[in-house]
Amino acid sequence: MGWFDWLRAEPANIETLPEAIWVNDAAKYAGIAAAVDSICQTSPPPPALALIAHFPQTLHTLRQIAAEHAASFPIEVRLAKELSERDFTVSSAGGRQPIEVIVAERHPHEREDAALDAALKRTPYQYRVKHHHSFDDAIFQIGGWSSQARKVMEMLGMNESEPIHSKVVVRKLRRLQRRVSRQATSSLPANSGSDWMRLNLPAL
């Protein structure tokens, strides 16, 4: 088990749900909006819902989704890098329910994903975490992998309105992140995953 695998070991206060992989970004954001709608109707309600992004471009879209929903509990929209305990306004209506967390993308560098888990672990709350990503995400563009995956999904009759929950795809994602970790020449801030790759991985 490597260093980042150890960091990814699920903390006691975090329940990680199967990752949702969408065929494209439009489907991903529609799926996140549907998940937010479902959580808003949950009874009993959670104490809060957190929508998390790694990049400002994604954060902007999450804010639009949050603005379209009304809930009896706080909906927080945050950048993963700036997350802290102070970011959560927990509603007393949630009782013993965990805070629902939707993460709208994986960062190309595995260190940033590990840092998000560590940030949640440091807070006193319980979390239920769901990651969403799509074959449009920058990490999947390495080596043309996303186009190959799309062809396979089309052959299997994948519906754009439904995510897949594939351990094979998640393992591939991890391998691509490790490749990025080895080859990144810097970690300059960026507006999107694609911009981050262009700035910090000139060889790719």
Q: What would your notes on this structure say?
A:
The structure is a single chain. This protein is of the alpha/beta class. It has one domain (3-200): 3-Layer(aba) Sandwich (Rossmann fold). Helices cover 40% and strands 14% of the residues. The chain contains 7 helices and 6 strands; from the N terminus they run H-E-E-H-E-H-E-E-H-E-H-H-H. Helix 2 packs across helix 3. The longest helix is centred in the last third of the chain and has 17 residues, at 167-183. The protein is globular, with a radius of gyration of 17 Å. Residues 1-7 have low confidence and may be disordered.
Please render the helix and strand layout as text.
Blueprint: H1 3-8, E1 14-16, E2 20-22, H2 25-40, E3 49-53, H3 56-67, E4 75-79, E5 99-103, H4 110-121, E6 127-134, H5 145-155, H6 167-183, H7 193-200
Parallel strand pairs: 1-6, 2-6, 3-4, 3-5, 5-6
Helix pairs in contact: 2-3
Descriptive labels:
globular, disordered N terminus, Rossmann fold, 6 strands, six-stranded parallel sheet, alpha/beta
Q: Quick recap of the structure?
A:
The protein is built from seven helices and six strands, in the order H-E-E-H-E-H-E-E-H-E-H-H-H.
